[in-house]
TrEMBL record:
InterPro entries in alphabetical order: G6P_DH, G6P_DH_AS, G6P_DH_C, G6P_DH_NAD-bd
Species lineage: Bacteria, Bacillati, Bacillota, Clostridia, Eubacteriales
Domain Glucose-6-phosphate dehydrogenase NAD-binding residues, every copy: 12-194
Enzyme class name: oxidoreductase
Name of the protein: Glucose-6-phosphate 1-dehydrogenase
Pfam families xrefs: G6PD_C (PF02781), G6PD_N (PF00479)
Pathway: Carbohydrate degradation; pentose phosphate pathway; D-ribulose 5-phosphate from D-glucose 6-phosphate (oxidative stage): step 1/3
Length: 495
């Protein structure tokens, strides 16, 4: 692949021994290298608190990459990056560590000809974001004339609007907005990038994409896993902050946005933000009526009995944190007025899937619609994971002498023939940071608006005790989630 942009850089990973680095980042780097997408002028410096030599660290990374990477571990491929991986141990708050780091980076710049370009990747717990940024600034490592200095911040970006604003002020005092890459890994997923293409490169979708033809939109991201080992974090988050404020809001904005004036980053982001601005004001009454929360109890996932959320490790036995959210929203603009957007996400649900269902309006009650009552509506389903593709439901005549009409399904599965070998989200995202393209990252005002929204809901929920657990593991969430749609004469499509 021919890229005419200077990709040379040293990637500095804070949190080099953490799960994210082992599972995702290093595999993404290996996969990029495997496809010859990394520049020769490239090196990685990982920082952690545990003491390892470079060689010991490289061996551990090799093991993790062998386990998690989508491409097989091949020694000749691994050798291309192995010697470019370095490890330093120091406490993220320790000045001496940054002095050591600065010296090493200077030496590596000379060895690899990386021109002082840096990508600082903060794969650490949120409480370290501020101290690391502060130290980088204090040691003059945040900017350098003629070099690119970028910073990548993992989620969660704050825990509410106030903390996010504070964090943002700290980061922007050291890095300019165009050098800040706020990760939302959903934006790295293949089919999420495909949403804009499907919408804006196909006449028959874009012309029907409005309240005249669309009855409702359903955005679901369901998981079968529970909180796993992340009970500590999840107890201060919950599904609203963990999934809705970021991933689900990003999906909503891509589905609902107007066509941007160009494909440039800021033009796209400008349109996304208009969607957030157009969401109907959420009052406490609105929250109580149109937002459902839930927490999983015991149940079965497949054949396996699983424990309730309150029995999970590092979770309070009286926890009132939600593991499920469903809501109805309206977007008050000319395109969408009157169309409900139903959004739901939860853990320990019946299946793992992320998909967007566009349900079209029914035809007038004439001809076939008059004769055959209750014909199914047309559906367009954008499947994001685990299958990636598009599914259509249309009405057609059943083959045979009888005159019967049945729903016909047409399905395009993008990753099925490739045996699920689509690029990992992190592969794409790291590559975009190297290119200096922040389209697939969230701009501050997107974060700001989505926190405002989430904070309003949290505030209302805080004042009203839920009655948990209210759904069984392995189900589709609390019954109120189904009732939310039933009231409107609709139901969730589990396609
Ligand atoms: C993360 C959340 O951002 O997204 C997790 O913190 C969640 O709780 C995960 O499990 C879901 O991501 P994916 O890619 O598996 O849908």
């Amino acid at each position: 692949m021919e890229i005419n942009i200077d990709l040379s850089c040293i990637m500095v990973i804070f949190g080099g021994t953490g799960d994210l680095t082992h599972r995702k980042l290093m595999s993404a780097i290996y996969n990029l290298s495997y496809q010859n997408m990394l520049p020769d002028n490239f090196a990685i410096v990982s920082i952690g608190r545990r003491v390892f030599t470079d060689e010991e660290y490289r061996e551990q990374i090799k093991k993790s990459v062998s386990k998690y990477s989508r491409f097989p571990m091949k020694d000749e491929k691994w050798d291309e990056i192995r010697s470019k991986v370095y490890y330093l141990d120091f406490d993220f708050k320790d000045n001496d560590g940054y002095i050591k780091l600065k010296k090493l980076l200077g030496d590596l710049d000379e060895r690899y000809n990386t021109h002082g370009n840096r990508i600082y990747y903060l794969a650490v717990a949120p409480e370290y974001f501020e101290p690391i940024v502060g130290k980088l600034k204090f040691h003059g490592m945040n900017t350098h004339k003629g070099s690119k200095r970028r910073i990548v911040i993992e989620k969660p970006f704050g825990k509410d609007l106030k903390s996010a604003t504070y964090l943002n002020e700290k980061i922007t005092s050291a890095f300019s907005e165009d050098n800040i890459y706020r990760i939302d890994h959903y934006l790295g997923k293949e089919m999420i990038q495909n949403i804009m293409v499907i919408r804006f490169a196909n006449l028959f979708f874009e012309s029907l994409w409005n309240n005249k033809y669309i009855d409702n939109v359903q955005i679901t991201s369901s998981e079968m896993v529970g909180v796993e080992s992340r009970g500590g974090y999840y107890e201060s988050a919950g599904a609203l902050k963990d999934m809705i404020q970021n991933h689900m809001f990003q999906l909503l904005s891509l589905i609902a946005m107007e066509p941007p004036v160009s494909l440039h980053t800021e033009d796209i982001r400008d349109e996304k933000i208009k969607v957030f601005k157009s969401i109907e004001k959420v009052t406490p009454e609105y929250v109580m009526e149109n937002m459902v929360r839930g927490q999983y109890g015991r149940g079965k996932i497949g054949d396996k009995e699983v424990v309730a959320y309150r029995e999970e490790d590092k979770v309070s036995p009286a926890s009132n944190i939600e593991t499920f959210v469903a809501m109805k929203l309206y977007i008050q603009n000319y395109r969408w007025v009157g169309v409900p957007f139903y959004i739901r996400t939860g853990k320990r649900l019946a299946s793992k899937s992320t998909e967007i269902v566009i349900q079209f309006k029914s035809m007038e009650k004439l001809l076939y619609f008059k004769e055959f009552d209750n014909l199914e509506p047309n559906l367009l389903v954008i499947k994001i994971q685990p299958k990636e593709g598009i599914f259509f439901q249309i009405n057609g005549k059943k083959q045979g002498v009888e005159n019967r009409i049945i729903p016909i399904q047409m399905e395009f599965c993008q990753n099925c023939p490739l045996e699920n070998n689509s690029p990992e989200a992190y592969e794409r995202l790291l590559f975009e940071v190297m290119k200096g393209d922040s389209t697939l990252f969230t701009r501050w005002d997107e974060v700001e608006y989505s926190w405002k929204f989430a904070d309003t809901i949290s505030e209302v929920w805080k004042n009203k005790q839920p009655n948990y657990p209210n759904y069984d593991s392995g189900s589709w969430g609390p019954k109120e989630s189904d009732e939310l749609l039933k009231r409107d004469g609709k139901f969730w499509w589990n396609v």
